[in-house]
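Listing S7. Sequence submitted for prediction.
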Amino acid sequence: MLSKRLIELSLVGAEWVLWLLVILSVFALAAVLDRVILFFRTRERIGELEPRLMAALNKGDLKAALAEVQRDSFVCNVLRAGLEQVSAGKRDPGAVEQAMLGAMARERARYEARLTPLGTIGNNAPFIGLFGTVLGIVQAFHQLGKLGATQAANQMIMGTIGEALVATGMGIMVAIPAVAAFNWAKASIASRLKYAESLMRALLSGLGSIECKSLD
């Protein structure tokens, strides 16, 4: 009884699966565009930032160091949180470090937003396409059983199976760019995180000279 009900449901065909994949591809494209815009707008300029920031830290110039991190980017937002603590008169390195770690957690959450749905679409789109192919093949064999093995029936069955295989191809087509964009975003976040940690340590090590000058 259960198998009969499942067969009846499968006879709906694979077209609704294709529409589902189209909808998922739209969601994936929207997520990719959103992340690309964010990553491009907040792109890091480490080659410019690092030498200028290190020069300001070596001189103990808090004002110049703050001026270098006013841009909206992962690294700048993390460093600015620590420098603002020093500017407010907080001299405890632990408090400054915790402020930067908190900013790092917020930035990481901001950059990783929408990546989970994107990764889910990339990982599961091929299986959704395969499911559509299975439904199409079940429908084709059901029609074969009803029509018999005539030439016209065979041509119709081959056409149905061909349409069903489109679902697998569609699933792969949706998955490949989604997975590629997901991996690119993760790699970019990891790179920014490493730069932020490196410059954060440099800021903490230069905290003494900044304090001495600010006290003067």
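Caption to Listing S7: primary sequence and predicted structure tokens for the chain studied. The chain has nine helices and no strands. The chain has a mean pLDDT of 84.
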